Structures are given as structure tokens and as C-alpha cells.
UniProtKB/TrEMBL annotation:
Keywords: Coiled coil. GO terms for biological process: phosphatidylethanolamine biosynthetic process. Residues 125-152 form a coiled coil. GO terms for cellular component: cytoplasm. Transmembrane segments: none annotated. InterPro entries: Kinase-like_dom_sf (IPR011009). This is Choline kinase. Gene3D superfamilies: 3.90.1200.10, Phosphorylase Kinase, domain 1. Belongs to the choline/ethanolamine kinase family. CDD domains: ETNK_euk. The keyword Coiled coil applies. The keyword Glycoprotein does not apply.
Length: 297
């Protein structure tokens, strides 16, 4: 939904199996969302940590990567208990990485930057439709209410939809790919964003339509967080699990603003065949409908 990705393979002269690489051509307007040089540095750092494909080369509008011999997950895979537990453990490992640079929470800064950009791209009428003039107050409220002393900060993926998760069918090893939005953030936000992505099926006939009837139920959320904490090697208490489950639920509000702003900006700059504006409407609708329940009036 951001880049065009190609598999390139060719025969070698010495008769070895075909060589295979992945070529990523950057999507239009992506520089509005993140700094590409920072993303490349993250990509290289991930590679040195053994977390993803190796960077093989760069060109003006893209790069060449090692081809990972694994399958990309599908929407139903996220509901599979075994696969979900593997994702939870991998996410915990990812959050524990030591990445060079500032370790401050980047979520609120990014939301404000995207909001400012969205206001510049759209007319006053469009801004009114999406209530953009009210979102600065909403971001301030969420930052004030959700920032707390007990929350854990880690290096977060921030875009953990099924298409960014790969699994080797033989070893069951999970690899997280595409670090364009990765930054230090509350780990509860990354978990929340992953839960929200379970409502999406980007391979359906209407890939922009979200189905919140399949949002993980309380049991699924509890089990995921338990597996996440358990993967560190220590048995978490029920109180620890409940705390992170509750924090993650509240951070779904930040995820909806994140997705909504991403959608309306993408709708202006991206030519990929996807109804970004309708996607944004659904994310904002979820924000306003869920806020009274999660945050009070």
C-alpha cells in the first residue's frame, strides 16, 4: 500500500540454483511520512541484529534486498493461536532491540506533524468533514491521559499488519519486515495497532473496508499479551497482563488517529489503487465511537 515490490530471479553461470532478490520501488509521496535516510539506517541496523533481510543495494527510487524464503501471513493467520503466540514473542524481541539514536516517544510528534500536513493538503471543507480542526485537542488529550510512569518504551514497528509479518513454514521462524514507520514508542501502542490491523483484509475485493466484528475479543487480547510478556522468560502476574491489556485498549485510540491521518494524506499523494479516503473515514469513526467507552466523556 506504499511501495511496489518485485521478485527478481535469474540463472547463474555455474549451474547453481537461480539467484533471487527483492526489488523495492518507493511509492510516491512517502517522504511526507518519514525520513527515508532514517529508515535506511533502521533497515541496516535490523540486518546487523539478524532481524530482517540484508540490504544489497540502493538506487534513486528504491533498493535491492535479500529475498526471504518465507511466506507472508494472511489475515486469518493472525487469529491462529500458535501463529499469534509466535508473533507476540517476536514483537517482544523487536521491542527489546537497542537502536542508535534518541529513545524518546515519537508517537505524539508524528501525529502532530501529520495533522499539520493534512491541514495543508486539504480545503477547509474537507478539513471540516474529517474534523481536523479538533484533532490537535484530541492528540493533546491522549498524550496527557495515556502517558504514565509505568508504561514501557521500546523500539516499535508501528505498522504490524499481516503483510509485514513473514514465517518460515519449516522452522516456524517469524520475521518482521518494512520498518518505514518504526520508532521508539510505548509498547502498548504497537500492540494496540496490531489488534486494530486484525480488522483489515488487504487482499479482499474491497481491501479498504475494515470489519471490526473480527477485532480480537477480550480472551484473545489477554492471551496475546500473556504470550508477549511470557516470552521474556518470566511468568507474568495476572495484574501485569491486565495492565498491559488495558493500556493497549486505550492506545487503540491513538492507532485510529494514526491510521486516519495516514489515510487522508495517502489519498492526496499516492496513486496506488486503494480507497484511502474511505479507509480514513472508518478509522476516524472508530476513534469517535470508542473514545467515550475507553476515556470517559
Amino acid at each position: 500500500m506504499t511501495n511496489k515490490v518485485y521478485q527478481i530471479n535469474w540463472p547463474t553461470k555455474n549451474g547453481d540454483p537461480h539467484r533471487k532478490v527483492l526489488v523495492r520501488v518507493y511509492g510516491e509521496g512517502v517522504e511526507l511520512f518519514f525520513n527515508r535516510d532514517d529508515e535506511i539506517k533502521t533497515f541496516e541496523c535490523m540486518s546487523t541484529h539478524g532481524q530482517g533481510p540484508k540490504l544489497l543495494g540502493r538506487f534513486q527510487d528504491g533498493r535491492v534486498e535479500e529475498f526471504i524464503h518465507a511466506r507472508t501471513l494472511s489475515a486469518p493467520d493472525l487469529r491462529d493461536q500458535e501463529i499469534s503466540s509466535l508473533i507476540a514473542a517476536k514483537m517482544r524481541e523487536f521491542h527489546s532491540l537497542e537502536i542508535p539514536g534518541p529513545k524518546d516517544v515519537f508517537l505524539w510528534q508524528r501525529l502532530r506533524a501529520w495533522l499539520g500536513l493534512a491541514k495543508k493538503l486539504y480545503s477547509a471543507e474537507d478539513a471540516k468533514e474529517f474534523q481536523l480542526d479538533t484533532l490537535e485537542d484530541e492528540i493533546r488529550l491522549l498524550e496527557q491521559e495515556l502517558s504514565c510512569d509505568h508504561q514501557e518504551i521500546g523500539f516499535c514497528h508501528n505498522d504490524l499488519q499481516y503483510g509485514n509479518i513473514m514465517m518460515d513454514e519449516e522452522t516456524r521462524a517469524v520475521t518482521l519486515i518494512d520498518y518505514e514507520y518504526a520508532s521508539y514508542n510505548p509498547v502498548a501502542f504497537d500492540i494496540a495497532n496490531h489488534f486494530c490491523e486484525m480488522a483489515a483484509n488487504y487482499n479482499a475485493e474491497t481491501p479498504h473496508v475494515l470489519d471490526y466484528s473480527v477485532y480480537p475479543d477480550p480472551g484473545e487480547r489477554w492471551r496475546f499479551v500473556y504470550n508477549y510478556l511470557m516470552s521474556s522468560g518470566n511468568e507474568p502476574s495476572d495484574a501485569e497482563v491486565e495492565q498491559l491489556v488495558n493500556d493497549s485498549e486505550k492506545y487503540t485510540l491513538a492507532s485510529h488517529l494514526f491510521g486516519g491521518l495516514w489515510g487522508i494524506i495517502s489519498g492526496h499523494v499516492n496513486k496506488i489503487d486503494f480507497d484511502y479516503m474511505e479507509y480514513a473515514r472508518q478509522r476516524f469513526e472508530q476513534y469517535w465511537s470508542r473514545k467515550p467507552l475507553l476515556m470517559g466523556s
